[in-house]
Amino acid sequence: MHTFEQYFLMNSDDVIQYVKAKIDSFQSAQQITCKEIGDGNLNYVYRVLNTETNESVILKQAGTTARISDEFVLSTSRNKIETEALLLQHTLAPGLVPEILLLDETMSCCVMEDLSHLTIMRTALTNFETFPNFAEHITDFLVNTLLRTSDVVLNHKEKKDLVAKFINPELCEISEDLVFTEPFHNNFNRNEVTPGNEQFVQTHLYENEELHLEVAKLKFHFLNNTQSLIHGDLHTGSIFIDQNDTKVIDPEFAFFGPMGYDIGNVMANLIFAWARGRAYSDKEFTEWVENTLFDIMDLFDTKFRAAWDEHATELVAKNADFKEHYIQNILKDTAGMAGLELARRIVGLAKVKDITTIEPIEDRLKAERLCLRVAVELILNPSDFQTGGQYLTALQNALQEENK
After folding, report:
1. SS3 letters across 45-87
2. Do 181 and 299 share a domain, yes or no?
3. CB-based contacts of 155-162 (< 8 A; 24+ apart in sequence)
4. Total structural domains in the chain?
5. Which domain holds residue 188?
6. CATH classification of the domain holding 326
7. Is 129 a member of any domain?
8. How high is the pLDDT of residue 77?
9. pTM (2 decimals)?
10. Band (338; pLDDT cuts 50, 70, 90)
11. 241 — phi, psi (to 5°)?
């Protein structure tokens, strides 16, 4: 019988013992089931169910290496960062993240609300499901978690203390390599180019010196801009959803970085869904994605401006021209970061099912090229993307180029 006073990587039987020992409502339970349900790249996730009461919880534990590859040797303390990020996000955007029941730093695990009545958004999108409330919900999350952890709102000393608390060098290094470096160079073994698109990638990514300059600027911006607490990996696989609710999960990559990184990740992953919809000629789904892309950018802009006026405490931030300058830079960052996400998910190690499951292969190759055309445009000309409509124009331009 384990006492859980020293770290070890648990299996399903251990998790049952752990939940009985740590969660009051499970202590006397006689009929408990446990299933490992994690499909992410880093951590181990278990659903624990008391079959007598139908009460269930999720336990998430960090291992010493990433599940995606043993090359990534990681500190298990990342679970603490993730859980504390969720706790803070819960205060800023209540109802849009899961409730945390327990943080155990010794075992590098947390126990949280079970969201299995919802669907992982990426899974739903690959099945062409649509969600009319998503744009409203995700912009509420973005505005409240990003603006209200920035120097615009926080006391500067309090903010610097949070920057130190959420320092996350190992997970940031993964992003720095997989997002900002490897997809644009042909000398990394982890890149995976789909056979048939080798020359396209060579020309548009590997040999594009103009693109490399802009990527370098974005990388150093990511390295040095502690603008606000960002989720750090806000893709559709990190969102649970149904027709009424949206819950953002998995902020293990959280740290203080540029706001546009989170917004850009959301936009890019919707573009993957758009490319899939085009591949399968699902007009209704594709139109929903286009409308959602439009709405996210425009709602974010509107809500951010209103929240700025309500919450800003920094005196110089109350200058109207400075507010405009600040917002334009966020939108510029958003475009560039969206381009990086589009490129790295097509060429790099961690791909997305929206694209990899497209059949036949000719349609997948076309979808990949569409995404890469948009990626290059976003990275090279980020200042041109201040509204949702400008993203839609880029999608149509890429489609026209591909069909020539």
Report:
1. EEEEEECCCCEEEEEEECCCECCCCCCCECCCCHHHHHHHHHH
2. yes
3. 155/313, 156/314, 162/229, 162/256
4. 2
5. 119-402
6. 3.90.1200.10
7. yes
8. 75
9. 0.94
10. very high
11. -155, 155
